[in-house]
Specification:
By secondary structure, the protein is mainly alpha-helical. About 70% of the residues lie in helices and about 0% in strands. InterPro entries: Metallopeptidase_M50B, Rip2-like.
Length: about 250
């Protein structure tokens, strides 16, 4: 197993950018503070996108699909997770403009190699679980470790983004991980319908969330509920969001 895990220098570079942003948030200069918050959020979000896909891949590898090793999915290299623009750049842009965090990339799993239907479900569940664990760890660190207010605000907003990603991805809609969890247990006609719906169903979901305010409010209300259960601080999150958005001119 260890020989299959080779961490990409690009992934380590994203961690370094995030850490550098954390250092900037400890400064009293407003420009440095704001820039630090942006680097923590964008860098941390890019790191979490890679961890999300790595979660799928490592679970599939342990479940029998060894092709993920040859595809480079176990390196945490963002270039390996389908198209870099769709997988990394576009989700970062959506976060930057204050939109709903997109699911990001995808890893192509050889489902025929997976041993059981339960393994298939666990592969799909691994990605959003990574986001949930990241949100929980960040919220716990903020609660337990004394830190400057700027750093706490940045990490709190990043933690909330992880929770949103979890809630979004766990929905049982074709094209999202939540559907992948239940798909192995569906009838063949239902699975065929899901295959046909997979390309457009997530887009339809985003249109509904953005275009129908009551649905969007329900979605974010549930996300805040999960965030609260994890011990998240909505006040720090709001402060982090305002600092993050200020550099983009309120786009």
């Amino acid at each position: 197993m260890s020989s299959a895990l080779r961490i990409s220098p690009l992934f380590l570079g994203m961690i370094a950018v995030t850490v550098f942003g954390g250092v900037l948030t400890t400064m009293t200069n407003q420009v440095a503070l704001t820039a630090g918050v942006v680097l923590v959020v964008l860098g941390g979000w890019a790191v979490s996108l890679c961890l999300h896909e790595f979660g799928h891949a490592i679970t599939a590898y342990r479940g029998g699909d060894w092709t993920v090793r040859e595809k480079g999915y176990l390196t945490l290299d963002p270039r390996r997770y389908t198209d870099p623009v769709l997988s990394i750049v576009l989700p970062l842009i959506f976060v930057a403009i204050g939109g709903i965090p997109l699911p990001g990339g995808a890893v192509w799993i050889n489902h025929a190699a997976l041993r059981t239907r339960r393994t298939e479900s666990m592969v799909s569940l691994a990605g959003p679980s990574t986001n949930l664990i990241a949100g929980m760890l960040l919220a716990g660190a903020i609660a337990l470790i004394p830190m400057p207010i700027g750093l706490a605000a940045a990490l709190s907003y990043l933690a909330f983004l992880q929770v949103i990603a979890f809630v979004l991805n766990i929905l049982p809609i074709p094209g999202l991980d939540g559907y992948g969890v239940i798909e192995p247990w569906l009838s063949h006609p239902a699975r065929r319908f899901g295959e046909k719906a997979r390309p457009w169903a997530p887009l339809a979901l985003f249109v509904v969330l953005i275009g129908i305010p009551v649905v969007g409010r329900l979605f974010f209300s549930f996300a805040y509920f999960v965030f609260d259960v994890l011990g998240g601080d909505p006040t720090l999150t709001s402060f982090g969001n305002s600092l993050f958005r200020s550099i983009f001119g309120g786009l």
